[in-house]
Automatic annotation (TrEMBL):
Domain (Glycosyl hydrolase family 92 N-terminal): residue spans on this chain: 45-303
Protein name: Glycoside hydrolase family 92 protein
Signal peptide annotation: 1-37
InterPro entries tied to this protein: 6-hairpin_glycosidase_sf, GH-type_carb-bd, GH92_a_mannosidase_put, GH92_N, Glyco_hydro_92, PNGase
GO cellular component: cytosol
Amino acid sequence: MGHFAFTENRLGSRDVRALAILLVTVLTAALATPACAAVRDDTRYVDPLIGSAGGGNTYPGAVRPFGMISWSPTSTRGDQTNTGAANGYAYDATRVRGFSLTHVNGAGCHPGAAGDVPIMPHVGAITTSPTSDTKDQVYASDFAHADEIAEPGRYRVGLKSGAKADLSVTTRAGIGEFTYPAENTGSLLFRASNSLNGSEDAEITIDPAGNSVSGSVLTGAFCGRRANGGVNNQKTYYRLYFTASFDRPITAYGTWVNSEVRPGATFASGGEGYLTGSARAGKGSGGYVSFADSSVRMRVGISYTSAQAAQRNLAAEIPQWATVAGVAADARQAWAKQLRAVEVDGGTADERTIFYTALYHAFLQPNVASDVDGTYLGSDRQVRRLAPGQLAQYGNFSGWDQYRAHTQLLAFLEPRVASDYAQSLLNLAWQNGGVWDRWVHVNGPTHVMTGDPSAPAIAGMYAMGAKGFNVRAAYDSLLRQATVPHPDGLSDKGCPGQCEGQRPNLAEYLRLGYAPQDNCHCWGGAAETLEDAVADQALADLAQRLGRPSEELRKRAGWWRNTFNPATGYQQARKADGTWVTPFNPASDQGFAQGSSATYTWMVPHDVAGLAEVMGGKDTAATRLDAFFHRPDGSWATGGDPLRYYPTNEPGIHTPWIYNELGRPHQTQETVRAMAKLVYRTGPNGLPGNDDLGTMSAWYVFAALGLYPRTPSSAELHLSSPMFPKARIVQRNLTIFAPGAPDIYVQGARWNGRKVEQPWLPEEFVQRGGVLRVELSGER
């Protein structure tokens, strides 16, 4: 029976004493430890409504960490071809026309993306086509926030119509309980074609005998209404399949196509197109099912590969006997486990709410795009299968935004997920002819924004510890796109906002050492030059880690100097003949993308010393930085002035930490804390601007920990003042003590007992973990 078997004949007095001591020790520890201490649950601090107003573009619905399905309201302001906010929900738009199955967190376009298959509980008879209700007057309902509860993994709301919806989800499936006033007919409308941006096609099939509804929508069109190039994205790149079943018998049913309602019909098809207003109003298809009972429970599964895969996903994740309460309890546990990635102690309830909601938003993406059996839709629209070792294929990459904070935080806290994310992006590039797209929605290249963000994203995730992907293949692929001109780089399709080339007009860029404003085939020549300099630095850093150092890439990382005009002291667009684009105004965005010259001039995170040098020295640079962060009256600049810091958009979000590089760390500490306190709050207006797939939230998480990536492609971390007296990063076996928090000024820091000499931490800090102790004071 082995060495650990005992018999009554061989259990001696010494063994008995040892066993008794062991039992007493265990029992004493158990009695001394509160039961709740074993499992920490910080979901009580998460408020999914934060960011749902003021342009944060978050959504409050039911979703799990990195979930494929996100079941959340689609609001309306009286136009069925539009919505209340970019991602379907705005706190001030209290009328809904359905609860959609997919969402993207914090995208800036309006409408942004997804919002597929809104499902609406309707009270009353279906006498006309819901698509003909173009102003959402009949088949939509008001609600009050007093009747709304949003929490991690669950969303509940009571509608003015008398219907109620209670929703929860797994990763790829959802469960909803819908109730209706007893005296009225209750129905569910499946608006199959009514994705946020419209659809190319949709279909729905009702099976009364099987008590189910299934269908799909063929759609895409992220940013397809954008004025600056969006028309190029009025195209399809995925089909979402869904299958739904009910616990009550269907008593009536029908479909609709455009303005025609078809009672008793079981099939319909038809899309809406990708336009808006009168060009789209009244188009589309869907179906409805009605019930004699006053409540119905529905289970729904989704997939991007096939109807059968949607059924398998549902069967695997939500059994027939499941309840919303049970699934919601499990979802809450999943979120509690995910949020334990960072455990903070101390602080007020509001401070914890801001922090854990930011962490929650950071873990909403990337989004699982693969089925339970490992199939997924490639960027070539072919069904693929995960390679051995990859646990999930992920979609949704807002590269221009995420590489500045989110992807590094993801790799820091969840290196396994970040590794699969990196492999997913490589897979999509392989399937896209080797081209890495700067904004991938699900599987589709959308070309949105500028630069080559995949390079710093991949390099940064690898540096931060995401090592479980084919990094050499990723580097080779990125290097090729950075050194071999591609035909797409000469296209003006989608320009300026969605230019198709990964490295626009690369041959001219390599010849001149900058992107010429008059011939760059990009959004803005100066912005493109700065973005490409960061990307080339990232490739050089990654090459160094792989034992393939490249002096050429290091040299190209310095080409930001070629668009810095010494005469003005700012980054400025240049023409191919070498002349500067004039007239010049640092408040202008000419030559830039979603930002002014005043903001972009600081976008050299990998060479702050060089930037200070061309500005006239560190003191001059610091003085200019002071004016960047403060209004003329000395108050903090928090947005609205193109000459000053704009905390809601990405090109400048690293600038508070630049003071560290200029020998003035106390000003980094002041500035970071000021921005965190002034523009991040509780309540719907709690984000400074659109969350950009968790980027703004990731900024706050880093700031609260007193850390921030020194460059996008390394694991060195700037040090500022932690906001909580203790924080533990579980994956890194790292604990940060700041007993003086919330004081601002760092008096000293020690990592594993060793004094930190610079206002940043070495890469070994991320790799080795340990204890960081930061001494804080209220005075410098």
